[in-house]
Amino acid sequence: MDDRTFRNAMGKFATGVTVITTELDGEVYGMTANAFMSVSLNPRLVLISIGERAKMLNKIKESGKFAVNILSEDQEELSMLFAGQIQEKRDIKFEPLEDLPVIKDSLVNICCKVYNQYVEGDHTLFIGEVTNLVLRDGTPLAFYEGKYREIVG
Ligand code: FAD
Fold this sequence. Notes:
By secondary structure, this protein is α+β, with helices and mostly antiparallel strands. The protein contains 3 helices and 12 strands; from the N terminus they run αβββββαβαββββββ.
């Protein structure tokens, strides 16, 4: 199996899209991620996976906290921006929740403190303990076979 086949196979798993945010020394950082899952109810834990080359990796290691912002269908541009797919600098308005900056009008904002971390291959898995969350109605942005999708019906 080559890398392309592996990537294509993983792309068959349809997901939502999140932007992970954190703050370090008064500066806000964001990164698009779809490697997100719920892990445990008691305690309330979630998981994100961050690549070794992502600048976000050290930001979370140093801040010890992150927020997961689950994007709605009309936030595709934000996903592209925080994935580096739109190059121009944009002034994004973040809102405070707990001690974290979160993305306005996302479907869900989940605040976490780092509970554990595991380096596995070229990614680090962060387990986050959920400290607060905010939910809104709406339709999620979906990602499948490397493309943004609409959820119909
Ligand atoms: P940068 O490349 O510095 O930041 C990314 C972009 O966000 C830059 O354009 C930057 O200008 C912008 N940005 C950051 N902070 C701000 C701010 N405060 N205000 C305005 N703009 C800002 N990678 C993973 O490791 N794990 C995943 O689960 C994952 N899932 C992905 C899912 C999708 C659908 C896509 C498209 C990409 C995914 N990626 C994932 C890749 C990842 O999003 C990119 O590699 C990203 O560019 C890495 O960001 P970085 O931390 O290196 O920071």
